[in-house]
Amino acid sequence: MKPVAFDYIRPSSIAETIKILGENPDAKIIAGGQTLGPMLNLRLAQPTILVDITRIPDLVRVDDSDDALTLGACITHAAIEDGRVPDAGDNVLARVARGIAYRAVRSRGTIGGSLAHADPAADWLSLLTALRASVLLHGRGGERTVPLAAFVSGPMMTNLAADELVVGIRIPKLGRNGRVGYSKICRKVGDFAEAIGVAVYDPERKGLRLVAGAAGGAPILIDDLAAPPSGQSGARSAWFDDLRSRLQSTSLGTDVYELNTHTATLRRALDEVIPA
Ligand SMILES: Cc1cc2nc3c(=O)[nH]c(=O)nc-3n(C[C@H](O)[C@H](O)[C@H](O)COP(=O)(O)OP(=O)(O)OC[C@H]3O[C@@H](n4cnc5c(N)ncnc54)[C@H](O)[C@@H]3O)c2cc1C
What we know:
By secondary structure, the protein is of the alpha+beta class. It has three domains: about 5-50, Uridine Diphospho-n-acetylenolpyruvylglucosamine Reductase, domain 2; about 60-170, Uridine Diphospho-n-acetylenolpyruvylglucosamine Reductase, domain 3, CATH 3.30.465.10; about 180-275, Enolase-like, domain 1, CATH 3.30.390.50. It has helices at about 15-25, 35-40, 75-80, 90-95, 105-110, 110-115, 125-130, 150, 235-250, 255-275, and strands at about 5-10, 25-30, 50, 60-65, 70, 135-140, 140-145, 150-155, 155-160, 165-170, 180-185, 195-200, 205-215, 220. The strands form four sheets. It has a five-stranded antiparallel beta sheet with strand order 4-5-10-6-7. A four-stranded antiparallel beta sheet has the order 11-12-13-14, with helices on both faces. Strands 1-3-2 form a three-stranded parallel beta sheet, with helices on one face. Helix 9 (about 235-250) packs across helix 10 (about 255-275). The mean pLDDT is about 95. The structure holds flavin-adenine dinucleotide (FAD). Flavin-adenine dinucleotide (FAD) binds next to strand 2, helix 6, helix 7 and strand 10. Flavin-adenine dinucleotide (FAD) binds near residues 36, 77 and 123.
């Protein structure tokens, strides 16, 4: 199929974009077009105007402070993969970027587009939830900063208002000894994940945070566990049994395959940061 006819506009500033969105309720933002392109072709999206935000200088800016890294929404996965932007610690951004789809998609797909689309299986959604990132939003009502965990309300659902756009992502930096384990299960390289496990272990700052991603909705966050004991002891096995029980009480508990794949990715992610 082909898209319905639409106008195309390429604003040069965030303010101009907000004005266009406010005046045209049927307008739709396009960034990398990696998701929206197919949606247009299938006529799942039928905007009257496409607003191309990729030439707005403020959306490719990087702000690197002592405690946080802020990435503009239109920074591509490839730019992160190539190390053209700084890291938030443990080289985790480049590591995860390199596992997203394949290079052609990474060259155009953007971090802001990924978060705005909020596909449950998207890599940034899981990783950045585990890193306590926040999205920076601008709209006619002003600017607001929303923790990613509160921004995503369900599968492909966010709290983005119609006249708002994601302008950036603020990622708190890891402490000096902070480590991130990341594991995902895909049917083949380049596919979206069936299960994602993220383990952030930051002894100086926030202890242990786990995220089970690609779980059908918003990422499942577990941040009240003590670190698992090291060594191949019964205590470590018991710890993972408890983790599995914990997952069983979530939406993953209704399907043994889902429960097992998510438990396995979390275990692999944890083994990376707190080896047995
Ligand atoms: C074959 C294929 C495989 C893929 N595999 C993976 C994978 O393994 N892991 C993964 O994480 N992702 C994967 N993706 C998704 C891809 O990485 C992109 O992140 C994703 O398509 C969205 O980014 P985009 O910049 O292309 O957004 P677009 O397609 O341009 O837009 C997507 C949606 O977000 C909105 N939007 C875009 N930017 C903004 C903004 N700044 N503010 C508000 N709204 C905005 C648009 O209006 C649209 O609704 C895959 C995509 C394809 C085509």
